[in-house]
C-alpha cells in the first residue's frame, strides 16, 4: 500500500500538456489532464532570467458541472490554467526501478488565464429547467460526491494513468 500525503485547496497554475480527455471509470465519468509548471526567476549573480525545473501535475475532475465546462471550453495544449483542489503526492517506482513522486490534484475549481486568451462567460441555466440540461439534479451530484470514497476514485485514476502499486 502506498503512502498518500493530501492537502486541500492547493492552487496550481501551469500549461496544458495535452487537451483534456473524458474517461469512464467504474465510479463513473471523469475528466483528466496534465499541467506543466515551471517558475521563472531572476538570478542576480548571472544577471539573467532562469526557469526552475518543470513539475507535472495530473489533474482529475469528478464534479460533473466542472467536467462539462472544461470539455465545452475547447482548451488546447499550451493553454494556461489555474486549478484549485485536493493535492496528493503519490510515490511510485519508475520502469527503471527509481523512486519517483506523482503530483495529483483533484480539481474543485479551474480557471483559464486571460493573459494569452480572451474569455467569454456564459451563465449556466439554473432553476427547474437546469436539470433538463444535464439530466442530473444538484442534489444527486452532491449525494454522489459525498458517498464516493477517495480510495475507489484514487484506484480508478491510478489505473487510468497507468500507475502500478
TrEMBL record:
Record carries keyword DNA-binding: yes
Residue ranges, compositional bias (Low complexity): 136-153
UniProt GO molecular function: single-stranded DNA binding
Entry keyword set: DNA-binding
Disordered as annotated region, ranges: 120-165
Pfam families documented for this protein: SSB
Gene Ontology biological process terms from the UniProt entry: DNA replication
PROSITE patterns (alphabetical): SSB
Domain of life of the native organism: Bacteria
Record-given protein name: Single-stranded DNA-binding protein
